[in-house]
Design brief:
- By secondary structure, the protein is an alpha+beta fold.
- Helices cover 30% and strands 23% of the residues.
- The chain has 26 helices and 38 strands.
- The protein has a five-stranded parallel β-sheet, with helices on both faces.
- A hairpin with a 5-residue loop joins strand 24 and strand 25.
- The longest helix is centred in the C-terminal third of the chain and has 34 residues.
- It is globular.
Length: 971
């Protein structure tokens, strides 16, 4: 049977376009039930059980479940459990889910694909008896609800024989839909009521979403109301409101910011009322306060440590009056959040806060990520979940509740277990880390992989050139290799050869889509989460020594001063003659007895790299720094056994310079050929206000840091050196790094050319070409470059600004999350290293805060906090008084004054009293402040070894004397 569907669409010009599509209806679509005797079907089509077992006290007879869209969207965590089976999934519902939530759709498809669950997709939209036509004046949502009821009724009538009958039960949380279903004579109830009727599975109730009901709405509101969507729209249209992404502070739970277009600074949000139930990542509507109400970011480090969810902390009550007394010059645009445009809630990892009431079902969940507020949940499994990492989802945040409400999703594993904690940090940073699906793996090349004659005809064969790679120790995903050789006329040929990943990953297939979603490889201390399957990342695409590989080569002819005379790009076949670590390459360069081809190539590359670096720095490129550490990992336990700051050698810089040069050369090429569609990378110049901490810190040490241009900043940093503090310049550069903006990917046609500039590199144009194994942006750039030189063709998505801009957004987000995950992994392994050990180390004050000193430990490349006012770890007040000078950014106690970069000695140990947030504790050893500092371990040891005073000896019994001697001996 043929019918038609009519769609009305509005064009860009405002015209109404009528679209008519043919719609085929059939009589032979199988219902999917083994019980059915009417439908024609094959044995393997039987999905729904012949005699489904009822687990519900509401419906204690054989029945199938029919789900509506919102039941799945709201309670996907329930349906992921294998309790419910024999479920009819209507095509109408599946299509709605697909368009409303891609994440839920993906999860639900996995549930449906599990044959043991008996979930059957019924194509009701093409069945003659279940297809419904949208009525005049009927909304699309109402039409779909009616279609669901019609299909449910059809099943209920269809599945009855003379002696037996299987009923169809509709689960819907829509009260109006339930009422209409009852009028139609259907069996219907809410998802929550059905789950509560499963008496053998009481814990399944923990997974119910509380989005649609609120039993405490009569309570007094403690937050201002949010504006309606129409009020927000009008406010933004009239310029009274602004929109942007909310970023919560990690250091102060009463503070956050919103990035708004048109404002140089972030809009500062302070105080509970102003934050108004925004959660990190939400897109919010913000109202800018009058200038006289603007304040400055707080210097206070403040964590929500309350045990009673209804208590208001003393700090919270006193927070705003303290920060408003601020110098006008230091104030930032300040606002308040008046509405939520789009929530960006996800699932959160953490633990349950112990409940003092025995047997209570209402609990407080404490997220591992300090930027996320605590969450109220109901669970009947509190005893089993004690000391477990669990996952919770937020459902709603009512005005009367200090914290949002949510539900339990699943347990991850024991708290403190390394595998569990690694899983937590991956989930918390939204790192896709599931195994590659069979569909993705099906697009990998088959082994043994060989180079065909067709491949050779399309590529330049460079296997005779002395090419080598230089990488960190243990690197298996080798993206790049280099060569340098003398040319007959006295010039040099330099080549950068990059793994040709795009040869193996073709546009649009499942492998390509998975790589684009993951966007980047994530490096943890003891593992790597690959962007592409290992067959590519560590084998066929890795430029390993003495193995033939496909590459994309960028080759220059340069003179002795590294001036580029000619540039060529081509797809190539290479064979790396040696894969080296930075240290191995450095040893070859420094050993004059080695005169072989690789040694000569490396020395020439190193010499040219120094010229290139000098030229970049003279142009204003910044040489910044960040504290990076390397762990030595035990081969068996995979625990850290030693930690040290990473060493940087000339060979690190050598490789970096040629990668930068290749990226610039490729950027120029693709932007010239595709001025509207080139994927580039820019680094915006920071606003001058960002540099205020750097300028003040330099001034306190007697240096004027000029930040007017990148070149002046570079010169100032070069000149700021202290002979008595060799680490001072490095710390200044670390501080300068903190002032920088985030570098981002963008599409050339969406940005003015003047904004292409990369501030940190002082490059007018830049892109990423050199790491396609671990960055998806580089794969796109390879495809653009291949099209430029005729080595491959374009495809529609490559030249679609809207789609590539959306891709850039994902790349920027994933890149940022990968960085955070890497840092979290370092923090986790640092905690493991210090577990059970106490150590004293030299450090430097990096930042002076209003209530703390943030100290950098160069040996380990890590930072920690020494609190100098407020509350100490277990709530003890300080016995000494520190005075904070806001103008000079100093802390003073008696005659001891702390400035940024002052040397200190600290004692490091791990505080495990807070099982959720174990933290590295720093205690001041030197300078010594009575009542605040701790005695040096060496001083304590000396006291133990000093002879005991005679009076003390006389008072000490012989037995104790023996114990003292025994302790000394064992020590």
């Amino acid at each position: 049977m043929l019918t038609s569907k009519v769609f009305l669409r509005k064009t860009k010009r405002g015209n109404i376009l009528k679209i008519v599509r043919e719609h085929y209806l059939r009589d032979d679509i199988y219902c999917g039930s083994e019980f059915c005797v009417e439908c024609d079907h094959e044995p393997h089509d039987k999905v729904l059980a012949k005699q489904p077992e009822s687990k519900s006290s509401l419906y204690p007879f054989p029945h199938y479940l029919v789900l509506d869209t919102n039941a799945v969207l709201d309670h996907i965590d329930v349906f992921e459990e294998d309790v419910l089976s024999d479920v009819i999934v209507l095509y109408t519902v599946l299509d709605e889910i697909k368009h409303k939530s891609s994440s839920v759709y993906k999860k639900f498809r996995e549930v449906v694909a599990d044959r043991s669950r008996n979930f059957y997709i019924f194509v009701n939209e093409h069945h003659r008896e279940t297809y419904v036509v949208r009525l005049p004046g009927e909304s699309a949502n109402d039409r779909n609800d009616r279609a669901i009821r019609v299909a449910t009724k059809w099943y209920d009538n269809h599945l009855q024989h003379k002696k037996h009958r299987i009923r169809a039960v509709l689960l819907t949380d829509d009260a109006d839909n339930r009422r209409k279903a009852l009028d139609d004579g259907l069996l219907v109830c809410s998802a929550a009521d059905y789950v509560k009727s499963l008496t053998d599975h009481p814990t399944l109730q923990d997974k119910l979403s509380h989005k649609n009901y609120d039993t405490e709405s009569t309570k007094v509101a403690i937050y201002p109301p949010h504006l309606t969507p129409s009020q927000i729209h009008e406010g933004i249209k009239d310029g009274l409101l602004h929109q942007g992404a909310f970023a919560a502070s990690r250091e102060n739970y009463l503070e956050g910011s919103v990035n708004v277009e048109g404002y140089e600074k972030f809009i500062l949000i302070q105080g509970r009322d102003a934050l108004n139930r925004a959660v990190d990542g939400d897109i919010v509507a913000v109202e800018i306060l009058p200038e006289e109400k603007w304040t400055a970011p707080s210097e206070i480090i403040l964590q929500d440590d309350t045990e009673n969810p209804d208590d208001v902390l003393e700090e919270e009550a006193n927070f705003l009056p303290q920060i408003k007394a601020t110098d006008v010059a230091e104030r930032s645009p300040t606002g308040r959040i008046v509405g939520i445009i789009r929530r960006k809630w996800r699932q959160y990892c953490g633990i349950l806060q112990p409940n003092l009431v025995q047997g209570a079902t209402r609990h407080i969940f404490v997220p591992a990520e300090r930027k996320i507020p605590k969450i109220r949940i109901e669970t009947r499994q509190a005893e089993q979940l004690h000391m477990q990492r669990i996952i919770v989802a937020i459902d709603q945040w009512p005005r009367h509740s200090r914290y949002p409400k949510g539900h339990f999703v699943r347990a991850l594993g024991p708290l403190g277990d390394k595998a569990t904690e690694n899983e937590v940090l991956l989930l918390e940073h939204d790192v896709p880390h599931s195994k590659f699906s069979e569909e993705v793996l099906s697009f990998l090349p088959k082994l043994p992989w060989t180079i065909t004659d067709e491949d050779k005809a399309k590529r330049v064969d460079l296997r005779d050139i002395c090419i080598c790679s230089v990488d960190p120790p243990g690197c298996t995903d080798i993206d790049d290799a280099l060569h340098c050789r003398n040319l007959p006329k006295g010039n040099l040929e330099v080549g950068v050869h990059i793994a040709d990943v795009s040869h193996f990953i073709r546009p649009g297939n499942a492998l390509d889509k998975e790589a684009s979603q993951r966007a980047t490889t994530v490096y943890l201390v003891d593992k790597r989460i690959d962007m592409v399957p290992e067959l590519l990342s560590s084998n066929l695409c890795s430029l390993r020594g003495n193995e033939v590989r496909f590459a994309f080569s960028c080759i220059w002819e340069v003179d002795e001063e590294a001036n580029i005379l000619n540039t060529k790009f081509h797809k190539s076949i290479i064979e790396s003659k040696k894969a080296m670590t930075y240290e191995e390459a450095q040893l070859i360069i420094d050993d004059p007895s080695q005169q072989h081809d690789i040694a000569m190539s490396l020395r020439n590359l190193n010499k040219l790299a120094k010229v290139l670096k000098r030229r970049r720095v003279e142009s204003g490129a910044l040489v910044l720094a960040s504290p990076e550490i390397r762990f030595q990992i035990d081969n068996e336990t995979h625990d850290p056994i030693e930690v040290e700051a990473k060493k940087i050698r000339d060979t690190n810089s050598m490789v970096e310079e040629f990668m930068l040069l290749a990226n610039v050369s490729v950027a120029e090429k693709i932007e010239k050929e595709f001025p509207e569609f080139a994927m580039l990378r820019r680094h915006p110049e920071p606003p001058q206000t960002n540099f205020e901490p750097l300028i003040k810190a330099g001034r306190n040490q007697g240096f004027d840091i000029d930040t007017s241009t990148g070149r002046q900043l570079a010169l100032s940093l070069d000149e700021a050196k202290k002979p008595d503090n060799p680490y001072f310049n490095t710390m200044l550069r670390i501080l300068a790094t903190r002032c920088m903006m985030q570098a981002v990917y963008f599409i050339s046609g969406t940005t003015q050319k003047a904004e292409f500039f990369h501030y940190g590199l002082a490059a007018p144009i830049y892109t990423h070409f050199t790491s396609p194994i671990r960055r998806y942006a580089d794969i796109i750039v390879h495809r653009l470059l291949a099209a430029c030189i005729g080595a491959d063709s374009t495809y529609p998505e490559l030249l679609d600004k809207r789609k590539t801009s959306a891709l850039c957004n994902n790349l920027n987000y994933r890149n940022r999350m990968a960085q955070y995950a890497g840092r979290a992994s370092v923090a986790l392994n640092t905690h493991l290293f210090f577990k059970g050990r106490t150590q004293e180390e030299e450090g430097y004050v990096l930042f002076v805060r209003k209530n703390a000193l943030q100290v950098l430990i160069p040996k380990f490349g890590l930072e920690g906090t020494i609190y100098v006012s407020g509350k100490k770890g277990q709530g003890k007040k300080f016995a000494v008084e520190f005075v904070y000078n806001e103008e000079e950014h100093t802390q003073q106690c008696g005659n001891v004054v702390f400035h940024s970069f002052d040397p200190v000695t600290v004692r490091l140990s791990l505080d495990s009293s807070n099982v959720q947030h174990e933290k590295l504790v720093l205690e001041l050893v030197k300078p010594y402040i009575e009542g605040f500092s701790v005695r040096s371990i060496q001083d304590d040891d000396q006291q133990m070894d000093e002879p005991m005073p005679l009076a003390a000896k006389r008072k000490t019994p012989n037995k104790s004397d023996g114990n003292v001697k025994a302790k000394k001996k064992s020590k």
